[in-house]
Amino acid sequence: MNKMSSTELTCAGCRCVISNREYLRCSLCQEVYERKCTTVSEQRFYNTMTKEHKLSWKCDQCRSKQPKTGNSNTPVRGADENVTHRRGTARTASSSNEEGTDSLLVLEMRSVGEQLRAVRRQMEELTATVSGAMLKIDACNERIDGLSARMDGMERRMNEISGSQRDGDSLLRSIAQLKSELNERDQELLLNDVELSCVPEQQGEAVGHVILTLATKLGVPLTERDVVSATRMGRVPEPREGTAPRPRVIAVRLARRALRDQLIQAARVCRGATTEGAGLPGTPRRFYVNERLTRANRQLFQKAREAARQHGWRFCWTRNGKVYVRKHPGGDAVKYRVHSEDDLEGVFGLPSVCSSVEKQ
């Protein structure tokens, strides 16, 4: 396998420019094929294929053109040769053919054994990951159930002691605090999720393939194992005369949080990336990658952006489900975290910031 610049190699199968080193060159026709366009798996490409295997690899088209070997060289036994040959003689006559076959079988069995061991290791890692995730989910469910029970008890208590305004205010604050805690728990369950917006939509599309293509365009190569789920959110928009319906947002859950952070960071670096070359319908258009927020945090973020625009604040963003604002760039600029709509009034409306807003 020759190493060449990715700009000089074009896959003979899909006719796309090869952007990584996962390719094989046919030893007969010298055509270059991307690994995804061959029958070679990623595990076999990196772990079991030796340098000799890669140098002697043949594409499907060349293998189909090779003539099949027959038994035309086998001598015909005469009618009068009614002789019983010894078993050792037949084994000696075919030993040369069996040696080559045995060596190929040994290599293939070793390759299969290595693949099985690699699959076993991956299954063990996946099992451990799933077990850890299930334990975390069970713990979150228990805490949510406990918070829900506490909120129900507070609501019953508020109905019983409606005569005291102070107690009522205290209960309202407690309920608001419980709702905030529930929202934070829900946001923790979305730490591995991202949202892709403004991606053209078509009927019968493979959303998972679209995600892999756009991630590769951003410089973050993902595999099918890295994407837990990918789906369009919301109802299908009804077509209107004269205007094209806005594509729905794609919600993606990744296997690891590090992949989510890497994808968001790549989208910030490649600001202005479009769908050109991704095989999507329509004219190329800019798409956006953001972290996925709960409904409450999404509404708070929209209101914070609108307030920042009205008051001339230049920066409003989210990180790990938290909303932040900043008036201007520079080391002396103060960053504020917005917990609720009351904090918006404290930041933009009053001369002094309320106590619930964090200065960072």
Report on this model:
The protein is an alpha+beta fold and 360 residues long. It has four domains: 1-63, Herpes Virus-1, CATH 3.30.40.10; 104-190; 193-237 and 244-291, L1 transposable element, RRM domain (Alpha-Beta Plaits); 295-359, no CATH class. It has helices at 42-48, 51-55, 60-65, 87-93, 95-160, 165-188, 207-217, 257-269, 295-311, 341-348, and strands spanning 23-25, 32-34, 193-197, 227-232, 250-254, 288-291, 315-319, 322-326, 335-338, 358-359. Strand 1 and strand 2 (32-34) form a beta hairpin. Helix 1 (42-48) crosses helix 5 (95-160) and helix 5 (95-160) runs antiparallel to helix 6. The two termini are 53 Å apart.
Low-confidence stretches: 1-6, 76-93, 350-357
Task: Give the number of domains.
Answer: 4
- CATH second-level architecture of the largest domain: 2-Layer Sandwich
Shape: elongated
The helix content is 40-55%
- Provide mean pLDDT, rounded: 80
Structural class: alpha+beta
Percent strand equals 5-15%
Got a strand count?
10
Instruction: Order the strands across the largest sheet as they lie in space.
Output: 4-5-3-6
Report the CATH superfamily of the largest domain.
L1 transposable element, RRM domain
Q: Tell me the major beta sheet.
A: 4 strands, antiparallel
Q: Count helical runs.
A: 10
Region (Disordered): 63-101
Keywords: Coiled coil
Coiled coil: 109-157
Pfam families: Baculo_FP_2nd
Briefly characterize the structure.
It holds the Pfam family Baculo_FP_2nd. The chain is about 45% helix and about 10% strand.
